[in-house]
Design brief:
single chain; 468 residues; alpha/beta; Alkaline Phosphatase, subunit A; 2 domains; 10-stranded mixed beta sheet; globular; hydrolase activity; Phosphodiesterase
Length: 468
């Protein structure tokens, strides 16, 4: 069984990642003959940055110091939109990682439920079922995504959760360091092990909620993310020079942010619904620096599967960016990519008034159990702090209060979330059932055991070893 490993602090991995910069800068590479065995491995990296407005990337991080621009220069960029769909992280990342919109997967908020991923398997499930020899990894500082990667019967091989201790920027730096360490680990790949790596960072979304999407703090977070991405891309270039293996890279966000301090996102303004997809396919440099007019976040999972030669579900909403004719026909080469993307963003509008109202109602109702749950967690943490002080009588009373809060509060959250799911269904969430058969669960009568193996490309981040 795959477990979620926790990286407790930056110091715990300092010894592991120290010197990564020198490794990236000093590897001399191998001869072509010595690297022959490495040439068949396929590596795919998905970088997720939460709550990032494309317009802010173009304004603050479209320069040579930013990984955003480097990724755009090396690949194809599409300004995308999720208008008519909920601009909340749980539903949007579920679309990114399943290839279907919320009218199918039915996720409405950020309270994790495993059931949607039994019906609509994630990219991790589909890779692990069809090609278990591929090494799959998630490195994330939002626990929801780690739970998603462990759901659906075929979990990710390596599931690393990075707690957001310290500042969000510090947490993202640790995610970056761990991502680079995992990339560099592929230089020792004697069994031609292909890999899929999902690396997720959250500081822009946190800044948007704390200060607003038009704040200096938000723009600085976008700049920070650009610097982190540049480090990751440098590591890929370095390991490619060593092994000869090329990498396919995808970069995306789940939603944007309101400019002023307030709800943040969840509604249908273009600042919230505008997204982006950047795609750099391994070995395909002919369209570097181009723009796509047809990219969608629902295309990401189908694209990843097609890169690994895994068959696509017939009920995907997305398509493969590798070979779908409609997508390929929508690739253009603008004179000024920044201006072309700015013009594309300006074309995005609101849904019709009926859909706008329905989705607003869904967001408000779906947010109630989520914020109740967050409030209960905060009360629980406060009471636990009293329990930990071992104060005579008071700590015992706090422990009893914890039980009451968690029992009663948990029941309230469950009831309100059930009501919210009902409202979600009435407003179109989860109303379309799968047409493809579900993946047979391991141990079921329909399951035939593939050639599973112990992970051949170990995540060099065993927390027990690091802390021991």
């Amino acid at each position: 069984m795959t477990t979620i490993k926790q990286v407790l602090c930056g110091a715990a991995v300092a010894g592991l990642v120290a010197g990564t910069g020198s490794v990236v800068g000093s590897q001399t590479g191998l001869s072509a003959l010595a690297a022959d065995w490495m040439l068949t491995a396929e590596h795919v990296l998905l970088i997720g940055v939460d709550g990032v407005n494309l317009s802010k990337i173009l304004e603050y991080a479209y320069n040579d110091d930013s990984g955003f621009k480097l990724a755009m220069d090396q690949g194809i960029t599409g300004a995308a939109t999720e208008v008519n769909h909920t601009t909340i992280s749980g539903p949007s990342w579920s679309t990114i990682l399943t290839g279907v919109w919320d009218n199918k997967h039915g996720v409405i908020n950020n309270l994790f439920r495993p059931e949607p991923y039994d019906k609509w398997p994630s990219v991790f499930n589909l890779i692990e079922y069809h090609k278990p020899e591929i090494d799959t990894t998630i490195i994330s500082n939002w626990h929801y995504l780690n739970e998603l990667a462990g759901a659906g019967g075929y979990a990710a091989d390596n599931n690393v959760f990075v707690p957001t201790e310290g500042s969000p920027a510090d947490s993202d730096e640790l995610v970056t360091a761990l991502t680079i360490a995992q990339i560099m680990a592929t230089q020792n790949n004697p069994d031609d092990i292909s890999s899929f790596l999902f690396s997720y960072q959250s500081q822009a979304d946190t800044a948007g909620h704390s200060f607003g999407g038009g704040s200096e703090e938000y723009s600085q977070a976008v700049i920070n993310l650009g610097a982190n991405i540049k480090e990751i891309l440098a590591a890929i270039a370095a390991v490619k020079a060593i092994t000869g293996d090329d990498w396919s890279i995808m970069l995306t966000t789940d939603h944007g942010h309101q400019q002023s301090l307030g709800f943040g996102h969840g509604f249908q303004s273009p600042n919230e619904t505008t997204q982006f997809v950047i795609f750099d396919q391994a070995g395909n440099d002919a369209t570097d620096g181009s723009q796509s007019l047809n990219y969608s976040i629902a295309d990401i999972t189908p694209t990843i599967l097609s890169l690994f030669g895994i068959p696509l579900r017939s009920d995907f909403d997305g398509v493969s960016l590798v070979d779908d004719p409609a997508v390929l026909d929508g690739i253009v080469t603008p004179v000024d990519l920044k201006q072309a993307l700015t013009d594309a963003i300006a074309m995005f509008g609101y849904p019709n008034i009926g859909n706008d109202i329905e989705l607003a109602i869904r967001t408000v109702i779906a947010s109630i159990p989520y914020f109740l749950d967050k409030g209960i967690l905060e009360i629980d943490k406060f009471l636990q702090s009293i329990v930990d002080q071992d104060i005579f009588l008071l700590s015992e009373l706090a422990q009893g209060a914890q039980w009451v809060v968690n029992t009663v509060g948990g029941a309230v959250v469950d009831v309100t979330n059930s009501l919210a799911l009902g409202v979600g269904y009435l407003t179109g969430a989860g109303v379309i059932a799968p047409t493809d058969a579900p993946l047979p669960l391991p141990g079921s009568a329909d399951f035939s055991l593939p050639d599973f193996h112990d992970t051949d490309l170990p995540l060099l981040l065993d927390v027990d070893a690091l802390l021991g």
